[in-house]
Amino acid sequence: MCLGLPMTIVETDGVSALCAFRGERRRISMLLLSNPPVGTKVLVHIDTAIRRLDEAEARLIADAIEGLTAVLGGEDCDRFFADLIEREPQLPEHLRLG
24 pLDDT exceeds 60? Predict the structure, then answer.
């Protein structure tokens, strides 16, 4: 399984950026995005920023990753998936049968 990480741009030169998530910093390619400023949240996959994220979406992704970490550690994970308690998860349209 591949995960995209919601990282925050700490510094950038337009071609690459130093990004942070959960205390980790790494140099990321910014070639797919049009020069987002410092502080922007981006979805990073294989050390490449693939799209910008708003704060709410970045938080949902970060919570899901924290939830997976909790499950792997044998801890309760419900607090990380609070948005699912209020609604029934839905499959995307392209995955629904009939």
Answer: yes
Among residues 98, 1, 4, which one has the least CA distance to residue 60?
A: 4
Q: For position 15, what pLDDT does the model report?
A: 95
Provide the pLDDT for residue 42: 97
User: If you write DSSP's letter for every residue of the chain in order, what string do you get?
Assistant: ----EEEEEEEE-SSEEEEEETTEEEEEE-TTSS-PPTT-EEEEETTEEEEEE-HHHHHHHHHHHHHHHHHHTT---GGGGHHHHSS-----GGG---
In the block, which residue shows the tokens 């938080």? Answer: 59
HSE value, Cβ hemisphere, 13 Å, CA-based, for 9: 27
Q: Which residue segments constitute the domains of the chain, with CATH numbers given?
A: 5-82 (2.30.30.140)
pTM above 0.70, yes or no: yes
